[in-house]
Design a protein that fits this description.
heterodimer; A: about 525 residues; mainly alpha; B: about 240 residues; alpha/beta; 6-stranded mixed sheet; 10 strands; about 25% strand
């Protein structure tokens, strides 16, 4: 690779770092994350191992998942994805495809190693020596990365229709691997038996040792108890990295034309995600318009409800897998409930989790309207009516999901029904508070006109770092209700008195927050043109 | 129809618009021109009731946009410089949404007629997210014309349009004016403003530099009777620098 490309890479990294450090909210998030990681490093040796005797199965499972997910995502791109600026300025420059590929790898290698370090910090020494896990997972991820790029480059030789079909197939495989992997990982870590033994059996088969060779090499390297075994496993890992790198570099295939399309498509999808919208490939989508006589029922602010219901119905492809994935974590805790006061807590925690992720999963409200706030404000409708209409969809869907979970538990598990009855009544109010706060964050964290964030086009979608601060606000907003419950208990009031007081207090909080949201909708200014 | 009296707007320490006053009568097309950062978009957004004025008053159809926002908004339509339609609604559904929100189901224009006029018929069942910039621009103007507004605000209306689209857009603006709408067109395309607008307002750093018909402002600038708007524009902008 040429010196100018190396210099460009270095300047890019330096500029990115400076940009992060100069934005206070991002800096705060970075400091918090680093603090948590340092805390983890300090305490890494103080924890007792979480896993029992079988430490190899979870690592093998995790390695296989990372490997398969990474390679399968190569099928999603016909030609590797670059940054839009690379396409505009590097593609027309006298740089060979091989040089471009090396430039791309310079960006991807550190990311692969960083994510390996993150896994090590998560697991600590529960699956083996942290250094060995880091080396093993690092080599595995770099190998997978090479194969992912190789697949995407080879796809440029395929017909467009074939590539599109492969993309659809890869999405299904990715989803299945993710679901099955998380389920098996939970089972393996919690030592419920079954998957652990099956995985060990499968991993010993010759076919698996070829198909998921970096994962088996990684597991062998971490588990090796002699110098010879360690060396052999390390050699296998090194061969994987070097061999796939050679495969990637030897055939010089010109992928640039396809990469231009891939880059534009992915940039569009990422922009959708930044705006908090449904990440969906819209190219060439033709559907039947729903404009029958029934639409007349939705005049005025009802039109917003009608619009959101259509957007929801067209987003199910991304919303439903998200909900199912969330339920994968929630359901085991939900059904672990027992019929005593303490036994209710796992279920309550699970429903709380559903409440928290429900608000994000069903964000068919002002969170998706940041770029259309002007159009909404220009409508001849009261601001309160517009805001209320926007909040209805996420509130109804979240509450519906929570009440369904509560009903399922009450009907299928022997639990204290009084507790769950109170919970069923409290959930609509709590959800209203959370949904209003989530919408409020759109305005509170939006870049001010003329600010550096506004010029940089910083997103205020659900994924932006500043939005993470809203979690803190959730807890603060729910404190008054907890306070009311506490006061009722101190005064030896009856159960229902405490619950009613808590509900009334939280209802007031919800109304106050709604009024604040309407004020923000009316007054908060976003970056203007000229 | 549109009246601004000493309208001002600040962003922090910076005055985006300072004491701007002008009026647009029914049937008039006012060309709002000025260099980047002159306050054109801010002015249009304030007239549309999207931004709150920092000072002064803005009235549309006799209604104060701050005190009687609903009545004022019912009378006007804004076409932003970068239209962002709902990506997961089809073109036809998007028009229906606007029609319902404005309550224009009876006295509004026929959406199918507008789609035909702007050559969007074959796109009616396509998702807005897959439209090109030019198509989005056409959709935005269709949405704006749907409820027969008495005041029409257009921010860079021809950006991204092909020659045919440009001609259709120009004709649509002229026909809306002929029907009695008061129109403000903000644009950097001075030729368009010269051909389309009955009056011109040049702003710089948020302040009015000059206002009038092209003949009137040529006279103020003491330029030849055949001087183009571009020459007049540079005369005033260079002078006020």
């Amino acid at each position: 690779m040429s010196v100018p490309l190396l210099a460009l890479w270095w300047l890019g990294q330096r500029a990115w770092l400076r940009h992060q450090v100069r934005r206070p909210r991002r800096l705060l998030v970075i400091v918090v994350v680093i603090g948590l990681l340092v805390l983890r490093v300090v305490t890494i040796r103080q924890h007792a191992p979480l896993l029992g005797s079988d430490t190899q199965s979870p690592l093998l499972l995790l390695g296989s998942m990372l490997f398969l997910l990474s390679v399968a995502s190569g099928f999603l791109q016909q030609g590797p994805r670059f940054a839009p600026a690379d396409v505009d300025f590097l593609f027309p420059a006298p740089v060979s495809p091989r040089g471009l590929l090396l430039f791309r790898l310079l960006h991807l290698w550190p990311a692969a190693l960083l994510s390996s370090a993150f896994v090590v910090l998560m697991f600590g020494d529960t699956v083996g020596s942290p250094w060995r896990v880091f080396v093993g997972l690092g080599a595995l991820q770099v190998t997978a990365l090479h194969l992912q790029l190789l697949v995407s480059i080879l796809l440029t030789r395929a017909d467009d229709a074939v590539a599109k079909r492969l993309r659809g197939g890869a999405r299904v495989v990715l989803l299945l691997v993710l679901f099955a992997g998380v389920f098996a990982l939970i089972a393996a870590i919690s030592e419920h038996g079954g998957p652990g033994a099956v995985i060990a059996e499968v991993a010993r088969s010759p076919a698996a040792r070829v198909l998921i060779f970096p994962a088996t090499a990684c597991a062998d390297f971490v588990a090796a108890d002699t110098a010879a075994r360690t060396l052999v496993a390390l050699l296998r890992l090194a061969l994987g990295v070097a061999g796939t790198f050679a495969l990637l570099m030897v055939p010089e295939i010109d992928f640039r034309e396809e990469s231009i399309d891939t880059t534009a498509r992915v940039a569009r999808l990422l922009a959708q995600r930044r705006r908090g919208e449904t990440v969906i490939d819209l190219d060439g989508r033709r559907v039947a318009s729903r404009t029958g006589r029934a639409t007349r029922l939705f005049s005025g602010a009802g039109a917003i409800l009608w619009k959101n219901s259509i957007v929801l119905s067209r987003s199910l492809r991304t919303v439903v897998p998200g909900i199912l994935f969330g339920l994968l974590f929630v359901l085991p805790a939900l059904f672990a409930s027992r019929r005593d006061v303490l036994g209710v807590f796992p279920a309550m925690m699970a429903i709380t989790m559903a409440t928290l992720f429900g608000s994000n999963a069903f964000n068919f409200d002002l969170r998706r309207e940041v770029e259309r706030i002007d159009s909404l404000r220009a409508l001849p409708l009261p601001a309160a009516a517009i805001v209320l209409a926007e909040l209805v969809t996420p509130w109804v869907l979240s509450v519906g999901l929570q009440e369904l979970l509560v009903a399922t538990v009450v009907l299928t598990v022997d639990v204290d029904r009084e507790w769950f009855g109170a919970l069923a009544l409290a959930l609509p109010i709590v959800t209203a508070v959370l949904v209003v706060i989530d919408n409020l964050s759109v305005f509170l964290f939006a870049p001010k006109p003329g600010s550096a964030d506004a010029r940089a086009g910083a997103g205020s979608g659900a994924g932006s770092p500043a939005q993470l601060l809203r979690v803190l606000v959730w807890f603060v907003a729910l404190l008054p209700a907890a306070g009311a419950l506490l006061v009722a208990r101190l005064l030896d009031a009856r159960h229902w008195v405490g619950l009613t007081a808590a509900a009334a207090v939280e209802l007031l909080v919800a109304v106050a927050l709604f009024v604040a949201l309407v004020r923000c909708f009316e007054r908060r200014e976003f970056a203007a043109g000229e | 129809m549109i009246e601004l009296d000493r309208f001002s707007k600040r962003y922090g320490d910076r005055a985006a618009v300072a004491e701007l006053s002008f009026a647009v009568s029914p049937g008039d097309i006012l060309g709002l021109v000025g260099p980047n950062g002159a306050g054109k978009t801010t002015t249009l957004r304030a007239i549309a009731g999207v931004l709150r004025p920092g000072g002064g008053t803005i009235r549309v159809g006799g209604f104060d946009v701050v005190k009687e926002p609903r009545q004022a908004k019912r009378e006007l339509a804004l076409v932003p410089d970068t239209p962002n339609p709902y990506e997961l609604l089809t073109v036809r559904e998007h028009l229906e949404f606007v029609r319902l929100a404005y309550g224009a189901t009876r006295d509004g224009r026929d959406p199918e007629e507008l789609l035909a006029k702007f050559e969007l018929e074959d796109k009616r069942d396509e998702l807005c997210g897959s439209l090109s910039r030019g198509m989005r621009q056409k959709l935005a103007i269709c949405c704006a014309l749907l409820h027969r507004p008495k005041a029409l605000l257009l921010d860079e209306p021809l950006t991204g349009l092909d020659p045919y689209g440009t001609r259709v857009m120009r004709e649509a603006i002229l026909s809306a004016a002929a029907e009695g709408a008061a129109i403000i067109v903000s644009s950097h395309q001075l030729e368009l403003v010269e051909r389309l607008c009955t009056r011109v307002l040049i702003v710089q750093r948020g302040r009015k530099v000059v206002e009038g018909t092209l003949e009137e402002i040529r006279e103020v600038a003491a330029l030849a009777p055949d001087a183009t708007l571009e020459e007049v524009f540079f005369h005033f902008v260079e002078e006020s620098r």
